[in-house]
Amino acid sequence: MRLKWWQLALVVSVSIGFVILLYVVAEFGRLRLVTAQDDVRRAQGQLARVVDLYQLVMNAESGHRGYLLTGDPSYLEPLHRAEGQIDNLGRQLVQTYRGRDERVDSAIRQLGPLARSRMKQMQESIAVYEALGQSAGFRLANSPTRHDTESTFRESAQITGDYQRALMGSSLENLERDLMLAGRLNLATLLLGLGLAVTAAIALVRIERNRAEAATGLQRQHDELKSQFDAQTRELTGLARHLQHVQEEERARLSRGLHDELGGVLLAARMDVTWMQRHATGDDADVTMRLERLKQVLDQGIELKRRVVEELRPTLLDTMGLLAALRWQGEETCRRADLRCTERFPDEEPQFSRAGAIALFRVVQEALANVAKHARASEVDIALELTDSEVVVTVQDNGVGAAPEDLNRPRSHGVAGLRHRIHVLGGLLDISSAPNRGTTVRVRVPLANVSGTSGADDGDSGTFTSVPRAVGPGPAA
After folding, report:
1. What is the pTM of this model?
2. Which CATH number belongs to the domain containing residue 106 in this structure?
3. Helix (H) and strand (E) counts for the chain?
4. Residue 461 within any structural domain of the chain
5. Cβ atoms < 10 Å from Cβ of 216
6. Which string of DSSP letters, residue by residue, matches 184-209?
7. What is the pLDDT of residues 437-472, one digit of tens each?
């Protein structure tokens, strides 16, 4: 089909008009988005300054308290560092404020002077401490005027931070609204462009052919990228397993060194103190008291050494096996955290590989540590169950629980570490929790991957059989 000249002119004119309209719409949307983005960036910068100023004062306060407690001049480093930055931040906060809220304006203008006043008060406390001693320094540091200044500073920082967060939220809403408007304008121009598509029917065959060729090329690139991704995944899995192996071996070496060398030194010192008590002459009560105190300190050091050694590498794991080590870890955690512990283990322990045993032990250790630190639980249940093909380890508590989004936060490194450790063994980690309903950590690992004949300790990795994801319900919690 041949187009007449006036039809061609009409098509060209409409096409040019469509391009101009598209440019106007895009530029209009871009300007609105730039304005909204500037508002968000300005609110973010102001909030960052408030946070930085607050953090400087709090760090200086911590260093000030540490110096009053210990007299160590190194604690004053945050105080000296803050002195050179507080004025600059306070001045920037005042200069960059563009709002009209008198309450926020007053809070922003007070932040710098209050911070400087608090720094001056801390310096006065330090001067009194150095001149009159620790008691006088603490009395001045804990005086009501100091607390009032700190409370006023916190309140001003809170007001400013809340305002900037609210401003950032409104700016983001404007940004979303502008995005929606730009999308609708783009949709309108798209509908207009569809009308022009009728005149482009002649080019459909060529476009389709080009699209097919592009799709073939994209598919080829996809296959190549997938192959590279799979290779890198195997390499990273192998590297992760190697690093875990090196880490555990280093922990074992350090544990043996502490047990042999530090343990020997502490035990020899303890025996010498006992000998001195038995052979001391005279009735000097002060010497007797100091010897008894020294003996108690050595006993505490020996006990601390034992705990550190067991945390690094439980001796029971290498001598008595995984179940004995799990029992010991459960008893230790429950005793320290005042928990009632219930254990469910098989009557006979299979032969676990060295890597498999330490991996399962670390999972239970990390889960119990989380229970002790965060769960506020009174009971915890530890179970290890065996099937024909799997090892299932479960740690369940009756604590406060957590929302699902809290378990997947970017900074949940403990959960990520557990998941990756189990992934290296070809297993699955499942954490189920809800507020006020406790938490259940369940691990399923193929028995062949952690058994004594799996070859898991020879440095190979990435060749484990994985647990199928489409499997029937696991053991009851």
Report:
1. 0.43
2. 1.20.120.1730
3. 14, 5
4. no
5. 10
6. HHHHHHHHHHHHHHGGGGGGHHHHHH
7. 889 999 999 988 888 655 444 443 334 455 554 343
